[in-house]
Amino acid sequence: MFHSLRFRLPALFLAGIVLAGILSALIAAKLFQDYTRDRKFAELRREARGLAQLYGEQALSREIFSSKSLSIATGDTLFYSGLPLFGPEARLRQLPPSYVDQAAIKQGNVVEFTFTPPGARRRYYAVAQPVKVGQQPFGALVVATPRSKLTTGWLKLFERLSLALVGGIVVAGALGWYLSRRITQPVLALARAADELSKGQYDVAVPEVRARDEIGALAASFRRMASRLEKADELERNFLLTVSHELRTPLTAIRGHVEALREGLASDPQAQQASLEVVAAESARLERLVGDVLDLAKLNARRFTVLHEEVDMARLVEQAYGAFAEEARRREINYRRDIRAHPVLVSDGDRVLQIISNLLANAFRWTPDGGTIGLAMSGENGRVEVAVSDSGPGIEPAVRERIFRPFWSRDGRGTGLGLAIARELAVALGGDIDLESVPGEGSEFRLLLPQAQEASSSL
């Protein structure tokens, strides 16, 4: 419990409130003390000035007010320090000269100080005002008040501040507990969902958080992560199913022909030759599949090596075109090329040929017999463009990005690696692949490569 956010958040919140309240109370008490002390000294100065003038004027006439009456009237205590100007009738308590700064008094200055009267225990705040007879100061009238009077006011302030602090702590505690529950409940729900995800249950219900704060952003990110993990898991399953099917088909054919050769079922030289050709073709098919998977893994791991060499793009396009000429003739496809430029790139020729071949293979796969496939190349604005167009069924806008994902196919057949590898290779070579398609009319894939290639030799 003590290690949970539900406890620590309110505890930290309360600790901050308590610390701030204590500091505020101390500062307020200090300010109040200074304020009340300054006011008291100002009041004592006014009283001392008036009483000293009164005693100075009456010292000549010997008509002196009783200090007891004046103390009752003012609420303060009167003392006298100096020459004996006043008789017993004044009832002024005498202070030894050491209690008052006599030098300052002789110069006519007012003195503020604190002291403990002889025989007393309480401390007093006091103001000593020179008593002048004529213009000559003969002593000082001291007006004093017990410091305990001010302390009583300070204690009342402390009591009120303490009550306010306790009330603030109660309110802050309730608010902190409420906020901590608001924060920790969705976090705990996300933690439970993460546990379910770790067990492979990608259809877990991610809690809805309506807040537009960090918790809401975390929930939204978690929901996107769960969706991507689910898609990745689906892709992985599809990959295993697809690759196992693609591997099993040629392996089955190879094993069948090998068994036939081993058991002598294909004794005729022509039958043996046909079986060997099937074995060679299916072996090449297996090699291409494994090579595609390895290429994709290297591209995703950024461990793909790119060569830098001069590439005659016109010759390379002709080579790619010729590789599919026989299939076009056999299927009666209108297969044409249009080479408008003869650029020379510094790139990896084998990988560029692989990209164009993958685009052509995709076009031949989706173009019906008797259709049209075009291969064109142009160069302008510092880049080379190789376009592969077809008269296939076209691609819906909703799936135009998905066709470049590994192991995804529109018809569920094939490995779905051709276009994915083509785009990854194009990006690795510093270019890209664009797509324009009209559903029902056909598609055009354009390979864009920079003429000045300055990519690193290893990705």
Gist of the model:
With 459 residues, the chain is an alpha+beta fold.
SSE topology:
Blueprint: H1 5-61, H2 67-74, E1 77-82, E2 93-94, H3 102-106, E3 111-115, E4 124-133, E5 136-146, H4 147-198, H5 214-262, H6 269-300, E6 309-312, H7 313-323, H8 325-330, E7 334-339, E8 344-347, H9 349-366, E9 372-380, E10 383-390, H10 418-428, E11 432-438, E12 442-450
Parallel strand pairs: 1-2, 7-9
Antiparallel strand pairs: 1-5, 3-4, 4-5, 6-8, 9-10, 10-12, 11-12
Helix pairs in contact: 1-4, 4-5, 5-6, 6-10, 7-9, 9-10
Characterise this structure.
By secondary structure, the chain is of the alpha+beta class. It folds into three domains: 5-151, Beta-Lactamase (2-Layer Sandwich), CATH 3.30.450; 214-300, Helix Hairpins, CATH 1.10.287; 309-450, Heat Shock Protein 90, CATH 3.30.565. Helices cover 54% and strands 18% of the residues. It has a five-stranded mixed sheet. The protein has a five-stranded mixed sheet with strand order 7-9-10-12-11.
